[in-house]
Design goal:
single chain; 382 residues; alpha/beta; 6-stranded mixed beta sheet; two-stranded antiparallel sheet; 15 helices; 10 strands; globular
């Protein structure tokens, strides 16, 4: 934290595997969102690293300062020599003749000419022209190698930013990332792969809207339109409520075909049936599309039937890791017992977990059929 100088993360280590859902829970300000941002390269990692398929994503290959200084000096010499040659009155005059004439005439010299004179005198007296040529050639090769590494790193980071996505409810991204004058169609098309045709994008957007069961209402509170109409009529986002915009935002991120999804409190602002549909969509992305999912939530109740592994975070550290049975029902850690006790008491009062399971059973079949239509065949690159 910038205000206190304390580390938001301290020794936190998370491994995400394809086809697996990892649940992460903990109290507020325990470091969950910071970890999500670090994984998706939204905050710098001061110590440690973030790797995707073996490549480090959080840092860029650094060029030593002495190479930068020598590059600047070499560039200055070359530019001044080029200016000197270009300014010769007689194009047939050699650089050596021009330097001798300038020295004989004792005329005021440009700094570049003075530097060229000194270099020429030094290299002539020492007789090391061949060595200088070799050093310059080796130096240029070294600079080229660093430039190639830099370009490769930039391309790799751009590729990773498309494959590793952070979906969150913080700062109201449905309003932050989407303008009111945008249509629902444009918002959903925004993240889709460029290789897709307009017809393919429209088919995917239609299936995603049906899977999420987006429903708009008129001023009297009556249902208005359906998924086909929302796309064909270019309905604007200004007509959508905050929860509806959040649903569109989440669907647009999933439409990009990510390989790693960091879902941070994505159910916030959604009603119960939509929450159930969203969990079913995430399960499909993991079990069929082989996505690696980190599911972050303060409500750990769904972890029992959603996750393969569960992590508990406290003061920037992962203090417990195991299966849902080990963490949710067998943990001896006092902090976990207190947290889960308060959470389950609240769930009993509201009957939220039972209602969520019921909605899941109702929607699972239809949602999976729609997701299959949206994404087609299973990817083979995983």
């Amino acid at each position: 934290y910038a205000s206190t100088g304390e580390r938001a993360l301290n020794g936190a280590s998370v491994v995400l595997r394809t086809g697996e859902i990892v649940g992460l829970f903990g109290r507020n300000e325990s470091g969950k969102t910071t970890l999500a941002r670090a994984i998706t390269n939204q905050v710098p990692v001061i110590s440690g690293s973030v790797r995707f398929k073996g490549y480090e994503t959080g840092s860029e290959p650094s060029i030593p300062y002495w190479i930068c200084a020598l590059s600047a000096a070499l560039a200055a010499v070359i530019l001044n020599a080029a200016r000197l040659v270009h300014s010769l009155p007689d194009k047939g005059t050699s650089l050596k003749q021009a330097l001798i004439r300038n020295q004989r005439d004792q005329q005021p010299s440009h700094p570049g000419i003075v530097l060229a004179q000194l270099l020429y005198k030094f290299l002539t007296e020492t007789g090391c022209w061949d060595q200088i040529y070799f050093i310059m050639f080796a130096f240029l090769v070294l600079i080229s190698e660093f430039l190639i590494r830099h370009i490769r790193h930039q391309r790799r980071c751009a590729d990773i930013s498309r494959r590793v996505v952070h979906i969150t409810s913080e700062d109201n991204p449905g309003r932050r990332d989407f303008r009111d004058e945008w249509s629902i169609r444009k918002a959903l098309f925004k993240e889709m792969p460029m290789r897709m045709t307009e017809e393919q994008k429209e088919a995917r957007a239609l299936c995603l809207l049906k899977a999420g069961k987006l429903q708009l209402y008129d001023r009297e509170g009556n249902p208005w339109g359906d998924a086909e109409r929302y796309l064909d009529s270019d309905v604007k986002l200004a007509r959508c409520s905050g929860g509806q915009r959040h649903l569109i935002y989440v669907l647009s991120k999933l439409a990009a075909e990510p390989e790693v999804v960091v879902a941070d409190e994505i159910l916030v602002g959604l009603d119960l049936p939509t929450q159930a549909r969203m969990l079913t969509i995430l399960q499909y992305m993991v079990t069929v599309r082989n996505v690696a999912l980190l599911y972050i939530s303060t409500d750990a109740n769904p972890f029992d039937f959603l996750c393969q592994r569960v992590l508990f975070m406290q003061n920037g550290r992962i203090t417990a890791e195991g299966t849902p049975m080990e963490i949710m029902h067998g943990s001896k850690l006092k902090a976990i017992q207190e947290y889960l006790g308060a959470m389950r008491e609240n769930a009993r009062r509201t009957s939220h977990l039972g209602n969520l399971r019921e909605e899941l059973f109702k929607s699972v079949k239809s949602v999976r059929v729609l997701m299959q239509e949206a994404f087609g065949k299973v990817p083979t690159h995983m």
